[in-house]
Amino acid sequence: MKQIISLLQVMFLSILVCFAASSVKSVKANNSYRVLNRIEGMVWSPYRQPVSDVYVELQTENYSTISRVRTNSSGRFSFTVTRQGNYNVKVLASGTNYLDALEPVEIVTMTSTASDNVYLDIYLKFDKRKVDSGVSGITEAVFVQEVPEEARKLYKSGVKSLSENDNKGFDEIERALKIFPDYYEALNTIGREYVQRKEYRKSLPYLIKSIETNQRSFSSFYALAYACYQLNHRREALEAARAATILQPNSINAQLLYGTLLRVDGS
Asked: Is the Cβ–Cβ distance between 265 and 238 less than 8 Å?
């Protein structure tokens, strides 16, 4: 754990819509069956990186909010609806350098017992007002690497598998890391995925290596802070949370975690 402390101290400073073949999904109510349709997908940054921990809303065609969820560590979201018709999926990008995104979705059920599954890839765009003005509070600093093509393909396949709750995604990302051990996106994704699954101890080596590779990774610092907090490594959690708030001062979650750790620490 001393390694974590010293490391942290040094490091402060398109739309694709497809209909998937599936079994009929329904619930019984009042002796009749109500079909369950699913709208799911992933949110991506302009650099094709999964965007985690942002709100996504499901809206009616008249823009009234039905429900709201946060993307997980793989940038994935999911909604369930019972009626066919037109909907909107809106990504709320406040506190980031991105613009909100709105995508229309149509649910079509061919029979009274058939369900419909719709998948969306939502690619966010930069808010030029924030980028050009140098406003702090970025979601992630731009980080460019020359990644071997074989490793890149394995990583993308792994992310897709994890978004579908298929654990073979871990193996695919591990294979990508064997080809390119300093692959930042792979390290960051697998570390955050372990945190999402509450396997905090497993996440530590990946998140530490991710930060070694990219010292301005807000998402890795935040995930490391949360993992250390859950493991009761309070000093390391406090240092990582502080770094996260420096990198993204507008993040409500980072400020809340940092404030919680300061209170626990008696500050």
From this structure: yes
pTM over 0.70: no
Distance CA 222, CA 245 (A): 9
Task: Identify which of 101, 90, 156 has the alpha carbon closest to the alpha carbon of residue 126.
Answer: 101
Residue 3 has pLDDT above 60, yes or no: no
Task: Dump pLDDT digits (tens) for 192-220.
Answer: 999 988 999 999 999 999 999 998 899 89
Phi, psi values for residue 6, rounded to 5°: -65, -40
Q: Is the dihedral of CA 219, 71, 233, 185 positive or negative?
A: negative
Q: Output the six-digit token pair for 53.
A: 């921990």
User: What distances in angstroms separate CA 89 from CA 5, 39, 44, 62, 126, one per listed residue?
Assistant: 41, 9, 14, 12, 19
Q: How far apart are CA 45 and CA 98, in angstroms?
A: 8
Helical pair 252-265 and 218-230, crossing angle rounded to 10 deg: 40
| Both tokens assigned to 166 | 């298929």
pLDDT tens-digit map of 157-185? 998 888 777 889 899 999 999 999 999 99
- Among residues of the chain, what percentage have pLDDT more than 70? 79
Give the other-Cβ count within 10 Å of 263's Cβ.
9
- Give residues with Cβ within 8 angstroms of 243, minimum separation 6: 8, 11, 12, 221, 225
Given a cut of 50, whether residue 119 has pLDDT beyond it is yes
Cβ atoms of 141 and 45 closer than 8 Å: no
Q: Name residue 122's beta-bridge partners.
A: 43
